[in-house]
Amino acid sequence: MQQIKNRTLLAFVCEPSDTSLAVTNPADGEVLCHIPTQTEAEINSAIERANTARKTWAKTSAKERAVILRRWFDLIMQNQDDLGRLMTLEQGKPLAEAKGEVAYGASFIEWFSEEAKRTYGDSIPGPTTDKRIVTIKQPIGVACAITPWNFPIAMITRKAAPALAAGCTFICKPANQTPLSAYAVAELGYQAGIPRDALQLVVNASSSMVGKVFTGSPLIRKLSFTGSTGVGRLLMAQCADSIKRTSMELGGNAPFIVFDDADIDLAVKGAVASKFRNAGQTCVCANRFYVQNGVYDAFVAKFKAEVEKLKVGNGLNEGVTIGPVIDASAKEKIMHLTDHTVAQGAKLVTGGQQLDGLFVQPTILADVTHDMDIVQEEIFGPIAPVIRFSTDDELIDMANDTIYGLASYFYSQNINRIWKVAEALEYGMVGINEGMISTEVAPFGGVKQSGIGREGAKQGIDEYMDIKYLCFGGIQA
Predict the structure, then answer these.
(1) Which of 95, 419, 424, 462 is spaced 20 to 30 Å from 335 by Cα?
(2) What is the pTM of this model?
(3) How far apart, in Å, do the first and last CA atoms of the chain sit?
C-alpha cells in the first residue's frame, strides 16, 4: 500500500487475525492488507447508535447538512488520485477509469448537497373554507445499504449522499472484495463534519448474516441494495415482515441495437465504451448486440478493429484499458459462456484465448442467434455477442424478451424510428446514439426484475423521505 500518499485513508487497517478480512489485488493476487470485521452484536450496536444519532442529525438545518456534504465532495476531489489508486489496487479497473469513478461518485455528493435545500412540500387548496392543507417531507430514519464490488465508491455515495442530505443516518455494508475505497471515502466524510454514528460501515465475511440483521432490525426503515436479482428478491422478502421501504438496483441484460440508418462509426465508439468499461463488469453495460442485416458486416469489422486496440493488464500500468475480472469464479463463468456459445454455432471474431491470472481477452462473437443461452445471461465480462435482425418489430420483440429492464441502447438517424423504439423498449433507461448514460442529474433505475426505485436526480432524495399531510381545521375565514 506504499503507493497511497494520504495515510489517513488507511487508518482502518489492522493486523491479520482469525476475524479480520484479507483484501487482495485481483491483478496479481497480492494481499494488500487486513481490515477488522464486526460481529452480529456489534452490527446491532451500530444500528442502535445510528438510531440515536438520527434524532440530532435530522434536526440540523438543510443548509447545515448541505455545507457538510459540499465539504465532503471537496475532500474527495482533493484526494482523487489516491482514491483512484486505492480502487485500482483492490478492484482492478484501470487507473484512469478508477479516477473517473471517484469524480462520478463525488458528483452525487455535490448534487445532493444542493438538493438538501430543495425538499419542498406543497400547499393544497382545502375542500372547505375552514380547512388548510399542506404537506411536508421528513427523513424516514435509519437507512442501510448493501453495495457491490464493481463500483466501490459510486454505489455508496449514490445512496449515502441522498440519505444524509434528507436527514437520515446511514449504515452500509460494502462488498468484501472492495472495502478499502468505502472506508477511505467514509473517513473523508468524518473529516468534513459528518458525525461518526450518522455514517457507518460494517463488514463481515457472511454477507447473508449482515443482510438478515439489516432486514430484521425494527430500527432500520429503509434498505437500498445494488446487486443480483436473486439476492434482491431474498432481501425484499426479508423486509416484508417490517414493511421496510426498499430501493433495488438489480441485474441487467442490456440490448445494444444498431439500425441500418445508424452512424456506424458513432455506434462502434459507443459499443466499445458501453461493453468494455470495467472489463464488462457493470450492470448497465451492453450485454447483447443486435445489428440490422444491412450494416451487420460493416459494424462487426469496425467493432473488431477497435476492440483489438484494447490493452489488457494491471490497471496501474501505462496504457492498460482492460483490467482483471474480480475473481476466479467470474473468469470461469465468462470463459464457459464463450466456449458454450461457440459450441452452439457462434463464430469467434476476435479474442477468446485463455490468459493467465484473472485476465480475460476482449472477445466478439458473431452469428449469435437469439435462442442461444448467452442471450439470457448477464455476462458481466468483456464478451460481445452480435445478433442479426431484419425488421423493427422483430428487434423490439427480441430486445424485450428478458426478465430484466435496466438499460438499453440504440443507434439510428431516423426520428420516427427513434421515438417508436424508445417508447417500445421496456427499460428504465434508454441511450439513443449514446453508449454512456450514467450521470448524477438523471434518475438511474430499472423496470421489471431489474429493480424498483430511482437513484440520482431530484427523485433520489425522495427515496429517503416520508410525505406528511397536515390538515388545519377551524380556520376562521
Answers:
(1) 95
(2) 0.96
(3) 71
